[in-house]
Design brief:
Elements lengths: L1 E3 L6 E3 L6 H12 L3 E12 L6 E7 L2 E2 L11 E10 L5 H14 L26 H13 L9 E6 L4 E8 L2 H21 L11 E2 L3 H35 L9 E4 L1 E8 L2 E8 L1 E3 L5 E4 L7 E6 L8 E3 L8 H7 L2 H9 L23 H7 L4 E14 L1
Parallel strand pairs: 2-3
Antiparallel strand pairs: 1-2, 3-4, 4-12, 5-9, 6-8, 6-10, 7-8, 7-17, 11-12, 13-16, 14-15, 15-17
Length: 387
């Protein structure tokens, strides 16, 4: 861990190779009058909107929509099975991939018919959440869809050749709409009261109704993102079980990495914003994915207080999307995956923004956070579907 001083609060970081723009954003966070104790940067940190992705910010008295991010509740889920991956040859894996694509909409696609209401998050008073209520029907069409960008579905193997299923997805356009609406409300409030803010870090004081409304809507989005992953996972398990009827699926591991929560740190109750960071309390099980050509990890948290009990949410980008499409060689990136016999569907230059070369070395990331998590399972991809 490296400590940067000279701002209002220190910055504690678990990496050396950070972009200048991400470091500047971290310094902005560390100068905020309501930033608590220190700012933490995980080893996958890189530039985001207002705040670095891979950043953890604790605040006193305010919530910052852009410190949660636009894909509220985005996260990972994974299931271990008893299936020996050798029962599937390459042809069968391609067949499974095609079945998944028929069952689950990718990219901007949604379901033509709304999903049943009983699959939506339960226990919320929708009528008391006007923004959620206005988007509710649209959200039902989005439930059980993967999305695009870095969202993915992977079949993986562990050291014993057991099949694992892993999904990365969030709250879809529904969550983005909620995030954008409240970021705009925060901006208008800060302008109205002449608050001295940094662009992208406009805040909502927790006493105001807008903050309470955002908090409720954010938690609904976190629950929606979980329901979204759960529905997709159920569909994938059904597809696999048709081929292996006696398959056993272990309980699903689920984590979110874009949210804010009340927590107790350094003798204070504070609002912890994790934007592209995973909670890693002592003994807590988490998921840290690599790129589409590298391994992922199931981990156990060590509860390091300096990270606000957090760890990375993945490998982290080392190259922006446009830079990856311009600089990476398609044949070389295909070779990296083909050499590992990974079933993939990367055929075009436009897909290079998610190629292995666009991401940091996952082993370096894991080494940098050896005091944050303990690896339990190392998983290698055998089939990759990108949104």
């Amino acid at each position: 861990m490296k400590v940067i001083t000279g701002n209002r609060v220190p910055i504690k970081m678990w990496l050396e190779d950070i972009e200048d723009s991400a470091m500047a954003q971290a310094c902005d966070l560390a100068m905020l009058p309501f930033a608590f104790h220190h700012v933490a940067l995980m080893p996958d940190a890189h530039t985001g909107l207002g705040m670095p992705i891979g950043g953890v910010l604790a605040t006193k008295g305010v919530v910052i929509p852009n410190a949660v991010g636009v894909d509220i509740g985005c996260g990972m889920c994974a299931i271990q099975t008893n299936i020996d991956i050798n029962v599937f040859d390459r042809r069968e894996l391609v067949s499974i991939a095609n079945d998944i694509r028929r069952a689950i909409p990718f990219g901007f696609d949604h379901h033509k018919q709304p999903m049943p209401e009983e699959l939506m998050p339960q226990g919320f008073d929708i009528e008391s959440m006007p923004e959620v209520s206005s988007l509710y029907l649209s959200a039902r069409h989005q439930l059980g869809t993967l999305g695009g960008g870095n969202h993915f579905i992977e079949l993986q193997k562990d050291k014993d050749n057991h099949l694992w299923i892993m999904i990365h997805s969030g709250s879809r356009h529904f969550g983005k709409e909620i995030a954008d609406r409240y970021a705009n409300k925060a901006k208008r409030l800060c302008e109205m009261f002449y608050a001295d803010t940094i662009p992208g870090l406009e805040f909502l004081p927790i006493q105001v109704q807008e903050a309470k409304d955002y908090w409720n809507a954010m938690n609904y989005c976190v629950a929606f993102a979980f329901a979204n992953r759960q529905l997709m996972m159920n569909q994938i398990c059904e597809i696999i079980q048709k081929r292996v009827p006696d398959a056993i699926f272990e309980p699903m591991i689920n984590i979110a990495h874009n949210y804010a929560a009340w927590e107790h740190h350094f003798n204070s109750d504070v609002i912890v914003h994790r934007k592209g960071a995973t909670r890693a309390r002592k003994g807590e099980i988490g998921i840290i994915p690599g790129s589409m050509g590298t391994c992922s990890y199931i981990v156990e948290g060590l509860g390091n207080p300096d990270s606000f009990d957090s760890c990375s949410h993945g490998a982290g980008r080392q190259m922006g999307r446009k830079a990856a499409r311009f600089n990476l060689d398609l044949k070389e990136q295909q070779r990296i995956m083909d050499s590992q016999n990974i079933v993939h569907f990367m055929k075009y230059q436009e897909q290079l923004d998610e190629a292995p070369g666009a991401y940091k070395n996952i082993k370096t990331v894991m080494n940098n956070q050896a005091d944050l998590v303990r690896p339990l399972h190392q998983l290698w991809p055998i089939m990759v579907l990108k949104g």
